[in-house]
Amino acid sequence: xxxxxxxxxxxxxxxDPVYYAFHVAGFVAVVLFNMWLGGKYGISRLRTILIALIVxxxxxxxMLIQFWIESGFEVFGxxxxxxxxxxxxVFCLLAARVLKYDRSLICDFVAPSPCVVQCVSHLGxxxxxxxxxxPAAHGIYNPKLLSTVFPSQPLESxxxxxxxxxxxxxxxxxxxxxxxxxxPIMLVLFGSxxxxxxxxxxxxxxxxxxxALSFHALLMCAVGLxxxxxxxxxxKRVQSQNA
Length: 243
Known about the structure:
By secondary structure, the chain is mainly alpha-helical. It has helices at residues 2-11, 15-41, 45-70, 88-99, 103-110, 113-121, 124-128, 152-173, 182-197, 212-242, and strands spanning 135-142, 147-149. α2 packs antiparallel against α6 (113-121).
């Protein structure tokens, strides 16, 4: 059934519109998710939308600029927003200043959003045939290769969804109290799992069997670990001063 749907979209010349429709759906999903999550953090619905309108477009724009820089200023584009996840706290700082919120609150609140985007938008790759896995006897039909491949895109979407659930469950257990750790935890979880998932994708390898995105994922994980270590040291210092 899925193969018939993918083929029908391809024959109708709707591959690109469907692909970008999933990107739009990803943004809509973030807005709706943030409206729900904002109530838990005491953020009004209007402000949750404003946060999304500040953070998401800037992240998307930086994704395009970053790809342009990495291509040697030859190509302005690239649709892999994962490479820009570690820069989102910068845009959170801007949103915090504009809306007069604490930066830690905005970072904790925004933490699940990149994974929400990945969970929804990445499914559009199934129809575009990009970001696909290795050829497999049993899998999903790829309109570019005209054969079945390992279902890497749905698997990555599922992992992103699981990370969202972990983050929400964690903050729920803490009664939605801000501790500044949600975003670095997201970076560690997403970076480590994405590094492993890259080995299931049939893409260009640059070093030691790793793709360029594998190294982006490792950087993401490293930033998250350092961030958590700094927070732990700061908390330990405060406790020693109060002792």
